[in-house]
Design brief:
heterodimer; A: mainly beta; seven-stranded mixed beta sheet; 11 strands; about 0% helix; B: about 110 residues; mainly beta; globular
Chain lengths: ~120, ~110
């Protein structure tokens, strides 16, 4: 079946630094990538939607300059958390949709801890 | 944005009992999906029900959808300790976004 590889699975960074999270679709072309954030014991909140080759569309309240999304190819999308602060510590998870797989395939998530 | 609410927020049952979780949503949908998440892990897709379907089965899972009430339920029959996880409903809207409900934490006691 369709697989999305998300890396890293865990990252600890210092406050003020930037962190890049990658999601790769391994056996299908991801025309659309969704990025979610999940705080402990809470639900997944959609942050942004990106279509390959286009600028991402951000949900209300999500800072586009802080969470940079790049979706330059049909197999790779990245989320960069810039100038990370402790409140950005969270579980980030991507989901890809495309062809021939038209469903949603989730990555395994990245646990970001900012110290 | 979050589409809707799930209840109960937490459910504790004995192994062998049935578990029922409910989900309500707010807008028109293409379909509704249920996912499972073990603590700190990724999501596992369980079942999808389209907006023109009323009930669907998959193994020990039974899902119902009532579009007039904008609600869905997930029934897990003959629960096992391994079913312990968080369960989320998610709705796909007309813009093909997948929006998640608040989730139910299920504990199945052996």
């Amino acid at each position: 079946g369709a697989v999305v590889s998300q890396h890293p699975s865990r990252v600890i960074c210092k406050s003020g630094t930037s962190v890049k999270i990658e999601c790769r679709s391994l056996d299908f072309q991801a025309t659309t990538m969704f990025w979610y954030r999940q705080f402990p014991k809470q639900s997944l909140m959609l942050m942004a939607t990106s279509n390959e080759g286009s600028k991402a569309t951000y949900e209300q309240g999500v800072e586009k300059d802080k969470f940079l999304i790049n979706h330059a190819s049909l197999t790779l999308s990245t989320l960069t958390v810039t100038s990370a602060h402790p409140e950005d510590s969270s579980f980030y998870i991507c989901s890809a949709s495309g062809f021939p797989n038209y469903g949603y395939t989730f990555g395994s998530g990245t646990r970001l801890t900012v110290v | 944005s979050q589409q809707g609410e799930e209840d109960p927020q937490a459910l504790s049952i004995q192994e062998g009992e049935n578990a029922t979780m409910n989900c309500s949503y707010k807008t028109s949908i293409n379909n509704l999906q249920w996912y499972r998440q073990n603590s700190g892990r990724g999501l596992v897709h369980l079942i999808l029900i389209r907006s023109n379907e009323r009930e669907k089965h998959s193994g020990r899972l039974r899902v119902t959808l009532d579009t007039s009430k904008k609600s869905s339920s997930l029934l897990i029959t003959a629960s096992r300790a391994a079913d312990t996880a968080s369960y989320f409903c998610a709705t796909e809207d007309s813009s093909y976004k997948l929006i998640f409900g608040s989730g139910t934490r299920l504990l199945v006691r052996p």
